[in-house]
């Protein structure tokens, strides 16, 4: 005799299953999960410290992790190195300053404002975040960046007569590159 469905269901034992936060959304980490990932990687100094390389000729970076949900990058900075005003092509992210200090130009309501980010600072941002980052001190600096979904395109911007204009979109599999400085970053080497 076959047991009725209801009695089979009553006999089924359901075990709790732990799912990583990124498995709850098929392709994107939550901002909280991104922040937790960047914090965990930053705390794992054995993972990144020996990899760091500094170049005065060009910005240096290395990919620490890559999967369908996020990618993680280690970047080094020497005085005067900056990025261009950009977003991350629909990816959300976070970065933490590991050593030294960085200056970030953030567009808020279309207006640029600069914020100094000393070692230990973490910034978590959404998919529409537009910023420029540069070295803000003497000696080397390093930062760790996590993007979700992984970087695939980046949009670059200029400010013309108070208007934010997208200048181009580029396909990319690497973190932001060095480009002309935003005026708020022009005095970086003078910052102590």
TrEMBL record:
The protein, known as: Cysteine dioxygenase family protein
Keywords: Dioxygenase, Iron, Metal-binding, Oxidoreductase
An MF annotation (GO) of this entry: dioxygenase activity
Entry keyword annotation includes Protein transport: no
Residue ranges crossing the lipid bilayer per the database entry: none
Domain of life: Bacteria
Family to which this protein belongs: Belongs to the cysteine dioxygenase family.
Organism: Fodinicola feengrottensis
Entry keyword annotation includes Metal-binding: yes
